[in-house]
Amino acid sequence: MFLAKVIGSVWSSVKWPELGGMKLLLVRPYSLADLGGAPAAAAPTHDGVVCADVLGAGVGEDVIIAYGHAARVAVSELLPDGARPSVPIDAAVVAIVDRYAVTDASS
Amino acid sequence: MIRGRVVGEVWATRKAPGLAGRRLLLVGVEGEDRALVAIDTLDAREGEAVMVSVGSGARNVLEPGPDNRALLCDAAVSLIIDGEG
Hints:
Chain A has helices at 32-36, 69-75, and strands at 2-10, 23-29, 49-53, 62-67, 91-102. By secondary structure, chain A is mainly beta.
């Protein structure tokens, strides 16, 4: 997982059926250097990542993104026991951050 | 596994149910300008050197075995480094 800031959304009318109704966000991961500054001033600098969102995150919020199978689990937690996630995504919002604390990013 | 150092912690109220009760650490990746958010079950402290398991292997840190596919985990602290030579 990684920490990122929501910087926009992505929409599409031609897509895989399992993606119907799924909200897609554009997020920008925080680098270690970004986190070392004052949290309020830190601006993420890495390249953007498109991820699925079922939590309702908004632009400007900090979020935690999971990759791979964990991302599919996150958007599929209402599936019956034993069912395998079939949604074709590889990144998803798994938490909307209240706060984070960094004390030791320099060493 | 990825070697890193614990640099902080993250708190979230609104999250996927699979993350309920998990302690989330910010781990700076050794030699790179990036940070991971990893689930911690070992009570690692800020400043400690750790190894983080990523991907499917990370689920085995929380619950070893073949029936852990429903766990929401792609990164977990799997050991705290005491020393190396």
